[in-house]
User: Fold these one by one.
Assistant:
Number 1:
Amino acid sequence: MQRNTYKPSDMASLIFNYPWENTSLGNIKNWSPLLLSYITTILNITTPTFIIWGRDKLFIYNDAYRETLMDNNISNALGSSIQDVWADKWLSHGSLIEKHSNEIPILLESVPFYRLKNKKSQKFFYNFVCTQIGDAEGLFCTGYNQNLISGQLKNIPSCKELNKTTISGEQLHIARDELISLVSHELKTPITSLQLQIQTLRRKFYQHKAPTPEKIIKILDIAVKQIDKLVELINDLLDIGRIRSGRFDVQFNPTSLKELTDNVIMRFVAELEATHTVITQDISEDIIGNWDQSRLEQVVVNLISNAIKYAPGKPIHISAKKKNNFVIYTVKDLGPGIAKEKQSQIFKRYERLSESDEINGVGLGLYIVRKIVASHRGKISVRSKLNKGATFIIKLPIDSCEQAK
Amino acid sequence: MKKHLFIIDDDPGILDALTFLLSETYEISAITDARIAIDRLQNERPDLILIDVLMPALNGIEVIKILQKRKNTIPILVMSASSNFESRLKGFNYAGVISKPFTIDDIESMIAMHLPS
């Protein structure tokens, strides 16, 4: 059996070439965009994730899962009803899924999986969090690796065996689980606020205690801000997906660095005021290059929001200078700085400087920033000492198009 | 007299919504910085404390620790967006956990249930 050779794109072609017309879902060409967008999402997730869709609860899953399902002798799991794929689990969890009809996620605990490794069968336990898609047409379920047990399938392994054989796999899973829990945490916070505001508003109207227009505007302002946060996070996740699948596009047009920076600073007015942070800048108007304006704005947004997040109330200085065919763009803060050994890590995916709970964030930002700069044939680096602030330095070719040729 | 609640959360959106929702029934002190709450609790005695876990400066668990040292008897309800959170609260004195996101019915019934009569 072939294993470990699948990529998300392979799984995608498996899904898209499946004879769906023979199922209750019908021809894939007629599927709802919502379902297709969820399928795209699951393909880029690295933990077992699946969708069950339609009245027959048909099973569509991602590559992270394929192996475990294959070894479970369910090679035809794709497109089958979840009731057949998981006949035994359906007994214990089916009623939960069946009855699920509200917005609160359901938790399927301790679902066992098996995978062959070095001729040994490994047993995994996954907890799944399932959320409803759209109007309950389907469920979207993501797995958290609960623990990992290794050994002969028929012999319960000793603890020693267990520790020897599974550390690396386990560490891998911990990193992924960490991301999922960070992402879900980041999603839940704005959703809580939105939900409360809107439910309360609705209730007041039902009770004929309509709030004043000023109050309503305030509530709507908060709601819009929470939605912006959600959109931002989702965009980050989508970008990660695009980067991974090589579909990260840039469009180069004449762009003024000064104008771009001004635009971004404007967006932070409220936050700067609230945190008493001042931004100064030194960028000459004539620095115009062939860049992707919205992508570069994304870079500057990220750097400024990081500076505010880690050093609220401390001044930020942005400058740009031409140097031959390049521009050196720097964003300098006076925050806690970054230890030398951490500096190489911050541009990686899922890295956050702060291990504590103090700073919110998922750690996707600088990874995306680096990718955007790279797509402009530029480079980003950081100069910093602990407790002495940090300076992010971007070196961009004036004509990113030219450099690309 | 209205019962008095301390609500401690660094997210102004949530604080504002909870105040808006609950201020008809309760007297609300909405506090964004847990350190201020700790100070105020030297002199004030609300009937219930509703506290977020993930906050800068001083997080919810630290607040519970500090209050525990002061032999606190005020019921504390913990709001959390993390899953598997209750394991981290083992050994601490708290009345209950509300997972974010929650509905207005969830929060109202939790408060009513844990308010001393």
Note: Chain B has a mean pLDDT of 89.
Number 2:
Amino acid sequence: MIEAFVQGLFNYADPLAIGFLMLGVIIGIVIGIIPALGGLTAMSLLLPLVFGMDRVAALSMLVGIHAISATGDAITSILMGIPGSGPATVVMLDGFQMTRKGEPGRALGAMMGADTVGAILGVGLAFLMVPIVREIVLTFGNPELFLLTLMGLSFLAILSRGSPLKGLMAGFTGIIIALIGYQNSTGVDRLAFGNTFLLNGLALIPVVLGLFAGAEMLELAINNETIVPKGLLKIGKELRSQFWVGVWDVWRHKWLWLRSCIMGYAMGLVPGIGNEVAVWITYGQAKQTSRHPELYGKGFIEGVIAPAGLNAKEGSSLLSTLALGLPSGASMAIVLGALLLQGVIPGPSLLKNDLPLVFTLIWGLAIANIIGAVVCYFIVGYLNLTRLVTLPPRYLVPPVLALVFIGAYAEKNRVEDLFIALAFTLIGLLMKKHGYNRAALVLGFILGKYFENYFWLSLQTGGPFFFLRPASLIIMAIIIGLYALGPIRSLFKRQQTGTLAGGTFGGELPL
Amino acid sequence: MRPSTLIPLVVGIAMAAVVIVAIGYPYFQAKLSLLFAAGLVLVLAIVQVIKELRERVKASTQTPDVQEASSNVHAKAYLRESLWLIGFVVAVYILGFVIAIPLFGIAYMIAHGVKARTSITISALWTLFCWATFTFLLDSGLYEGLILQQLGLE
């Protein structure tokens, strides 16, 4: 196996393989920066080209696009507050606030640093997981998926801290919005009233773009202010040094980063957990276990590092796709299609007969992330992309709004999505003005349907005690542990303070 | 009534409607999640309305006129910018992206004090970028608008 692992890396000594990987990275960054397009569009456009190409080069190009498009997406989320996908929304929560505080370089450095090292860790973990991946994947069924979405939804309580009434209202309203349309299991039209557009349910991108990007732009226009006041923004050398401070922040928060990566990696192995779900779980656990949960969402560096677990997830998603032929998402389904076009049959036999190819693609993810980080560093640090954030709203609002609405339309090419994005822009503006948590609404919206589907499937297949399975019990223990950690920590702190006070002041209680 | 009170009130009424509609669904499986979520939001909204009304009663004795005047000015700005946005979306719906983007860009920038030449240049370049990216590079095509569709010119 070690031989295959090393050979996988050395396959990139071939100029053709590394050249196509770099091409994929550049396409991924460019496409990722444009909202709603993302790697999926680029991969599906390039899929026909794969036929007839060298298999390592072709698959590397697709892996390169997939690996890096999320980074491109995160750049616009951090700099302009325009999330082009569900996961980018989470990065934006703290990343955009850091930009507004004049620290875009630090946020970008932390994001890219955490992502790149996360991808490299993913390769290492893949090496360890190859012999046991099949067993791990098969232990996850509907009950475990249900419990994982429950875990994600339970973070509504964490997100709502400070204003629980408004937060929970927003979160549960998000769940109701997610339930609009046909119910898969019964075929009942719920809250769609026969409207063919609503019967398919609302798409994520128009909702997210409206709630965040549209509302932020409109607010800038209303207050006539720039994203970052001119004096606050660092450019050139200062911006680049800010970038390295961000990278250093990843090291300072290495345990948080490691925890996020391991969680992300574990979730990537399980088909059925989308990036949208996984990223909220990593963010939620980071906030729950943080010493400063009150700073999350206000431009806190931990909030940018925590979603990095998603990059480690890509390694395991790719591994489970290759090892079992079970794609964990749409992008992986395209990789699967490309493998079949190349005459490679994914599944357990691939691990036996063509292990170097498996490691080549997993190495490709890591190398693509390293190349992507370097390219993004030059784009941000030398092309002065960050100057855009000092433009007055009269110049910024029309192009950004155009992009927001093109993004809303482009996801499914439905004109009705324009009106959905418009409605959510106005809703987002009202929510922001009156202190309702928009992230809670998005969390409810993303997880609501998964939660309901997995609940009924678990109940039908396992009966009322469907959660009495080893893997389910472990997940339940993790959920309970996460919520017990806070009270235990504060109890421990109180005891420590009491002991200190007792030692210093001879047993007197502090006033 | 202040918007801070009006929002939970509207949400509460909407949730009451959801509960009524959901009760009528044929399967228990179809109504359970909706009834649970909407019922919970309804209760939370009622509590929020009561909380807002109490705060209003408390604050009514000490609200200065100056604050009210400034909030009126702010409300006008909200309305104005929201109308620009609604106008843009309606323009896209009727005329399509390729016409609506430059039209909106030029009108918005000129109305906000940008020189005509600058606003035309920025809008034209941006439209060109969007059109080239989506039509040529991505082959996905931008929405052409109701008029062109009706005329069969798309």
Note: Residues 503-511 of chain A have pLDDT under 50 and may be disordered.
